[in-house]
Design a protein that fits this description.
The protein is mainly alpha-helical. It is built from eight helices and no strands. The protein folds into two domains: about 110 residues, Orthogonal Bundle (Rna Polymerase Sigma Factor, Chain: A), CATH 1.10.1740; about 50 residues, Winged helix-like DNA-binding domain superfamily/Winged helix DNA-binding domain (Arc Repressor Mutant, subunit A). The chain starts with a helix and ends in a 6-residue tail after the last helix. InterPro entries: RNA_pol_sigma-70-like, RNA_pol_sigma-70_dom, RNA_pol_sigma70_r2, RNA_pol_sigma70_r4_t2, RNA_pol_sigma_r2, RNA_pol_sigma_r3/r4-like, WH-like_DNA-bd_sf.
Length: about 180
């Protein structure tokens, strides 16, 4: 499941700060989590996968060597994007390719329109907050967290059939809230 931008920012920044404090496992986790984001960022901008992979490695090395320059008062993803963007610009210059990379693409490290996804997520959370706790929790477990019916039943101490019926009824209640049909 894709994380909201604020959640991803907080998680990545926490790993970076722990890494700066000497937690090697957190730092390794940070670099591992950044790899797919960077791979996607570079793959969307370059035609050859090998070039993109080289830039991922160069960016991870730059993050490591420049980690002391990270300003803990600022967002981690802005710092990350600046490094990735400069690595891409350097690569394009060396290759003789002229392209513009607008600064407004700062969120592009995290893929498609995260702002739209964040707005939709906020809307869903607001609607869910209007449901009774039991219905809200069922929908969060099964539909948002992606738990199977069996996993949700186990975590909530319910039977699988009770979870199925509860999710169905919760969805009907949610549809009534948004003015949709209840069938």
């Amino acid at each position: 499941m894709r994380q909201e931008p604020d959640t991803a920012e907080a998680a990545l920044k926490a790993l970076m700060l722990a890494g700066l404090a000497g937690d090697g496992a957190a730092y390794r986790a940070l670099l591992s989590r950044l790899t797919p984001y960077l791979r996607g960022y570079f793959a969307r901008r370059l035609s050859r996968a090998a070039e993109a992979e080289d830039l991922v490695q160069e960016t991870l090395i730059a993050i490591h060597t420049k980690r002391a320059s990270f300003d803990q008062a600022l967002p981690f993803t802005a710092w990350l994007h600046a490094i990735a963007r400069y690595k891409l610009i350097d690569h394009l210059r060396k290759s003789g390719i002229r392209a513009t990379l607008p600064l407004e693409e700062a969120e592009a490290v995290f893929g498609e329109s995260d702002s739209e996804a964040a707005e939709a997520s906020r809307d869903v959370r607001e609607l869910l907050a209007k449901l009774p706790d039991a219905k809200r929790i069922l929908l969060e477990k099964v539909k948002l967290e992606g738990l199977s019916t069996a996993e949700a039943a186990l975590s909530l101490g319910m039977s699988e059939s009770a979870v199925k019926v509860g999710v169905h009824r919760s969805l009907k209640a949610l549809m009534k809230l948004i003015g949709g049909r209840d069938d």
